[in-house]
Design a protein that fits this description.
It is built from 3 helices and 2 strands; from the N terminus they run ααββα. It is mainly alpha-helical. The protein has a two-stranded antiparallel sheet. The chain is rod-shaped.
Length: 143
Amino acid sequence: MNQDLNKFLEKVSQEKLKEREIILKEAETKKDEILSRLREQAKNYFANFKEKEKSKILREVEEALFKAKLEKKKLILQERESLKEEALDRLRKYLSENKNLIPKKKIVSSAGEEQVQLELEEFLELVRKKAQKELDRILNEEI
């Protein structure tokens, strides 16, 4: 039961990593296009200006590059959150169809000990807490 859950989580994780790589490649291509265009514009612009004007334009180019990098990071951070939520949604759907995989918890009282099936959301919260560190490790690779 736990192995099936681990296999499922690993499969979802691998799928999300592949999607993340595609998004990163697209963002890198877009960044390279922007950089190339900005460099070409700056080169043409610099050809006819004094040193003072060159400095001003260089600052503008650096600012544009900085903004492009920030936008890329923002997209990646949004995608990370989306991946986390999608993984939990898939797990929720899988477990709602396979309730027998949800573990039981032991309740000890003065009347004795009994085992009660965990609620789906209660179990998902436990999984979320336990898996958060691993998800962060996978998704927090250098941007």
